[in-house]
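Revision sheet: structure tokens.
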Amino acid sequence: MAGADDGVGAGDVPLGPTWLDEPCPRWCTRDHREDDHPEDRYHQGEPSVFTTVAGAGDSVPPGASLRPMSLGVRMGRQIGEERTWLLLEPLEDRHPRVVLSLEAARALVQHLTQQLAPADLGH
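Predicted:
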């Protein structure tokens, strides 16, 4: 018989995949499916998207390898894991990709703010 903890609701309609044994975080917008591959079983937030330029960074001058791209910033966490990650990745390609812990992402915001301060002052 279906119970409150087995993922089955009124009328024996599953509330989610049988493998999803934890609640989604409030930021998760991913559509979890029963047939998701084990590597695809994760919580994912809706990405913030912006257009920029990026490149390998190993050319001189640095701008010589730049190309336009759309970057997405989103949160993610594997099912059963405790650590949530912030991902910064291009929408059109697999690289460059940066994966940060939430602590590192917060530190990055502070460092970016510090680096941008002189530009904001017109110096």
